[in-house]
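Exercise 7 asks you to align residues with tokens for two separate proteins.
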Amino acid sequence: MEKNYNPTLYSYCIPYDDGAAPNPYWGICTLVICKPVIRRVAQEGDWIVGTGSKKSPINDISNHVVYAMKITKKMTMQKYDDTCKKNYPKKIPDWNSHDFRRWVGDCIYDFSDGSDPQIKQGVHNEGNKKRDLGGKFALISEHFYYFGDNPIELPENLTNIIQRGQGHKSKSNRPYVNDFISWIEKQKCELNSINGEPQMKKKFLKDKGFFSECSKERNREAEMDEKIGLKQC
């Protein structure tokens, strides 16, 4: 990325923080499923910010940051599958593992047989396939902050980046990009690490079937994102 590149800040509300989208585990934060529009248009050097929801299982955290990631790599989902097999095998879901992190692996599409991938057992199912693959790209960050159920409140001068409801903000965030980056990088938290647990984790540990309900909701949201498309403020 050129030194004079002016990054775009994409912000959206993340109502289902389950550790899958984004997936902050194993040293990198990845956005590979959900948010198909952002995955298509965001570029290396851009930032993505997920803010909390009034529907969060912990409380109303709509003015808080759940995660923020600077995109350091962008690749096709097929290349991501190859990359995970070689370098990040734990991103591939293992439904039989006793490790929650393996349940929420986001490398759920296997391109071994070509361009028509098979879906592995994981947090999404065939009902999500069209929207997931419609995003075309996997976004990877080696420069991220993940807060989960320990979100941090935005200062008043940055609350305009909050997207209320479906979709995302990008163009209207232009006046706040530098201030946001300066603010987030001054936080007293460890870079590229887990500073909180996924908000939905306790529910999933009690009932694995809850993933199915969440996958339906996320598919509905992805469909709405596509309808809204690039007509973002």
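Second protein for Exercise 7:
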Amino acid sequence: MNRNIVTSTPINNVYNLSASSTDMQMIENYNLVLQRLCALIKLPSILVNDNEQSTYNNVVEAKKQAYTEVYIPMAEKFIRAYERKWLKMWNERTGQEYVLYIAESEIKALQNTPLERRKEAREDVARGIITRNEARQAQGLDTLDIPEMDIPSVQSGTIPVETIDNGNI
């Protein structure tokens, strides 16, 4: 590939490996139809081999979008219909209360990456929402036995609530 081969032997059979213009048009039309069908059901076309725009980040975001906008809503519709018809009847016969639900915390594609979790923890620490030790615990790290690590930090220009005593600072 991408090189020239010179030979003194006559070549009897030559196979053209390129596609004709009609074949290329057919492939292009296929991709267009694929994109339109995906748009119809709100499914990112990257997930069905539309590789024009696919990068790792695009695919990760496309998977999250597919779960939140396509898979989970469709599954919820199915669950509601199943509960109305069959599960209601089953619950009446058995006298027990069975329910179906989607465990979103178990869906790997919807979970934040470790990098995203660290970024959120840093932002929460900067806003004073959590302490530094709480951020370390959220990352699976050991807490530090330093008293300042258990005090919420705040951005400059604000005063921690713990320092206010009866309106006096």
